[in-house]
Amino acid sequence: MNDYIIIRAIKIGEHILETKDTIRTTGKKFGVARSTVYRDITERLPEINKELAIKVNEVLEFNKTERHIRGGEATRRKYSQNN
Questions:
Q1: Would you give the end-to-end CA distance of the chain in angstroms?
Q2: pLDDT of residue 72
């Protein structure tokens, strides 16, 4: 694995842990695709830093449980702005 990938995976993990951002938001901030962020976190980070990977996975699980709420809020805002 290249050094820049290792550094990126650690930075992404630390960012998600600090900000509780979603994969999509993190990808935009780092200028990479969602799939890259997901792969960095789920496949690469556990090989690099197991403890960080476990903590980040907890944040991702929390975001996953809340995504239907965020989606509903976005829909509500969309239709309330049109009226």
A1: 52
A2: 76
- For the cut 70, the answer to whether the pLDDT of residue 15 exceeds it is yes
Which own/partner contact pairs does 5-12 have at CB distance under 8 Å and 24+ positions apart? 5/40, 5/44, 6/44, 6/48, 8/32, 8/40, 9/40, 9/41, 9/44, 9/45, 9/48, 10/45, 10/48, 10/49, 10/52, 12/37, 12/40, 12/41, 12/45
Supply φ then ψ for residue 2, to 5 degrees: -70, 150
Please report the pLDDT score of residue 83 as a whole number. Answer: 60
